[in-house]
């Protein structure tokens, strides 16, 4: 697989071979402790038909930074200079603002990607950073993938046995090699051919020399939206990516749909996969997507506020104050307070400038991570019975530290209300999830979790309540769930064949 061509004047500095070690005090875009939250693994963005498309892509990736903060990449095409690329570790704002760098990425067509690594792969190398590029007999193509291929190990084994040479450890590279082995006559058809072999979840943004391509898997697990900016076209993981460049939202790419766009012929829609009932990831509503994005015609913020309303109805509690665990618990806390009639207050204040700490960790300060990003509003908390609203509990480590901070500030009682059901199963569709035995809800009952966290009460929203908040008035259809909720229910819409081969035990049929 040959890499993109470089402009003769390209003065881009040499790329580092490996990623710096992960810092013990890393936080996500919401300010949450990276060790105790689920993370989306990536976001994708593409633009066709504008001057200096890579600048638009950099802005779009900045808006999608919450979906991946480890690294980012951009590939572009210029009629004279051909394909060019840049891949960097770190934030988009730090990596893709250099005028010198952006001058090496010219042309009217570009795609980009931001990523987290999967669990346990923090020693990533730059070649793992997408988009990936391949040179075919009919020209070059680049792809950026959001999701996870659940049969990647089997595909990789087969491809290597047939002579493929992989350049990365990413499951997404399988798509490029499957395209290379396809006998179809053009790149979109080769992509269709390749993706029919793939199992799992994928939203793909790809490009050729003249085309911008977007594809969602048949279940539509991961999001992808379509927009217009002037005479150009945009593909983005979320609508907030359209907003930052002033693009008009057109529609969502449908589950199982491939859109092929070029400046001459406009947009062509194809449906290359067998039609299935959609199973969009419900955790996008709970946490992953930005609150100012729109999903399925519904505001993410409004859904999260309604989760708080449902939670207050299901798990009322006599208390003096409702406080969010900022920032991801804020909309649900507002809804809870409004429905319960209990005053809402910012009992916890987040340091807006928290990133990687400037303090080198030593044993004496190793447990200060939460205090570096959050501080209790003591004057408000003292003497109060406090309800803390958070989006989820994964390992419980951050929840315990926050509870201790609230009690240290003089609270009389601490009650947790969680804006999602217990997370008891790992996700295999593009979310960085701990192994099942590391998930608190996989090994403890709700009462055991309450005792472990040492709080006065602990209640989670029910799965039906979550569905109602997301707009399903009758709750969850147990025979044909409207969303992918495997992390809560253990019901996987696509069998995780690679993990089953490794010994993962699926939930026993009831």
Explained architecture:
The protein is α+β, with helices and mostly antiparallel strands. It has two domains: 34-148 and 200-278, Glutamine Phosphoribosylpyrophosphate, subunit 1, domain 1 (4-Layer Sandwich); 299-477 and 493-501, Rossmann fold. 26% of the residues lie in helices and 24% in strands. A seven-stranded antiparallel beta sheet has the order 4-3-5-2-11-10-12. It has a six-stranded antiparallel beta sheet with strand order 6-7-8-9-13-14, with helices on one face. Helix 5 (173-181) crosses helix 6 (187-195) and helix 9 (300-314) crosses helix 10 (330-340).
Describe this structure in a few short sentences.
This protein is 26% helix and 24% strand. The protein is an alpha+beta fold and 510 residues long. The protein folds into two domains: 34-148 and 200-278, 4-Layer Sandwich (Glutamine Phosphoribosylpyrophosphate, subunit 1, domain 1), CATH 3.60.20.10; 299-477 and 493-501, 3-Layer(aba) Sandwich (Rossmann fold).
The residue fraction in helices comes out at 25-40%
**CATH-level-4 superfamily name of the largest domain:** Aminohydrolase, N-terminal nucleophile (Ntn) domain
What's the overall average pLDDT, rounded? 88
Low-confidence blocks of residues:
1-34, 118-123, 356-364
Per DSSP, the total helix count is: 18
Top-tier CATH class of the largest domain: Alpha Beta
CATH fold topology of the largest domain: Glutamine Phosphoribosylpyrophosphate, subunit 1, domain 1
Number of separate strands: 25
| Residue share in β-strands | 15-25%
Strand order of the largest sheet: 4-3-5-2-11-10-12
Q: Nearest-angstrom radius of gyration?
A: 23 Å
Major sheet characteristics: 7 strands, antiparallel
CATH architecture of the largest domain: 4-Layer Sandwich
Oligomer: single chain
Count up the domains. 2
């Amino acid at each position: 697989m040959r890499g993109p061509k470089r402009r003769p004047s390209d003065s881009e500095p040499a790329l580092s071979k490996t990623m710096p070690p992960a810092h013990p005090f890393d936080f996500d875009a919401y300010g949450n402790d990276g060790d105790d939250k689920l993370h989306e693994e990536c976001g994708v963005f593409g633009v066709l038909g504008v001057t200096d498309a890579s600048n638009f892509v950099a802005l779009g990736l900045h808006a999608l930074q919450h979906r991946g903060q480890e690294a980012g990449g951009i590939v572009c095409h210029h009629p004279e200079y051909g394909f060019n690329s840049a891949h960097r570790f770190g934030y988009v704002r730090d990596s893709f603002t250099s005028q010198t760098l952006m001058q090496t990425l010219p042309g009217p067509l570009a795609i980009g990607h931001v990523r987290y690594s999967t669990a346990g792969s923090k020693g990533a190398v730059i070649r793992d950073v997408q988009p990936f590029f391949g040179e075919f007999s009919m020209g070059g193509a680049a792809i950026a993938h959001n999701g996870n291929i659940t049969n990647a190990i089997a595909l990789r084994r087969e491809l290597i046995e047939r002579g493929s040479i992989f350049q990365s450890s990413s499951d997404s590279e399988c798509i490029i090699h499957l395209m290379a082995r396809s006998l179809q006559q053009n790149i979109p058809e080769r992509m269709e051919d390749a993706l029919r072999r793939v199992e799992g979840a994928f939203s793909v943004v790809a490009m050729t020399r003249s085309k911008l391509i977007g594809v969602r898997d048949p279940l539509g697990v991961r999001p992808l939206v379509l927009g217009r900016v002037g005479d150009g076209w945009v593909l983005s993981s979320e609508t907030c990516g359209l907003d930052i460049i002033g693009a008009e939202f057109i529609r969502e790419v449908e589950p199982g749909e491939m859109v092929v766009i070029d400046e001459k012929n406009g947009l062509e829609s194809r449906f290359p996969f067998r039609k299935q009932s959609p199973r969009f990831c419900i955790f996008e509503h709970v946490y992953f997507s930005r609150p100012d994005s729109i999903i399925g015609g519904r505001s993410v913020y409004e859904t999260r506020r309604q989760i708080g309303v449902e939670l207050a109805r299901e798990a009322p509690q006599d208390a003096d104050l409702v406080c969010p665990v900022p920032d991801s618990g804020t909309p649900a806390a507002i809804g809870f307070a409004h429905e319960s009639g209990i005053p809402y207050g910012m009992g916890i204040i987040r340091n807006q400038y928290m990133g990687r700490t400037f303090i080198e960790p030593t044993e004496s300060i190793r447990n200060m991570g939460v205090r570096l990003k959050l501080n209790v509003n003591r004057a408000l908390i003292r003497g109060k019975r406090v309800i803390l609203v958070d989006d989820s509990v994964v390992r419980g480590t951050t929840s315990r530290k926050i509870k201790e901070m609230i009690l240290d500030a003089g609270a009389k009682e601490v009650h947790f209300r969680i804006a999602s059901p217990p997370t008891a199963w790992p996700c295999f569709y593009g979310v960085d999830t701990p192994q099942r035995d590391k998930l608190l809800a996989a090994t403890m009952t709700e009462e055991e979790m309450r005792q472990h966290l040492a709080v006065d009460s602990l209640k989670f929203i029910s799965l039906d309540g979550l569905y109602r908040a997301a707009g399903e008035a009758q709750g969850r259809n147990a025979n044909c769930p409207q969303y992918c909720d495997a992390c809560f229910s253990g019901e996987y819409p696509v069998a995780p064949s690679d993990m089953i081969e490794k010994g993962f035990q699926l939930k026993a049929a009831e």
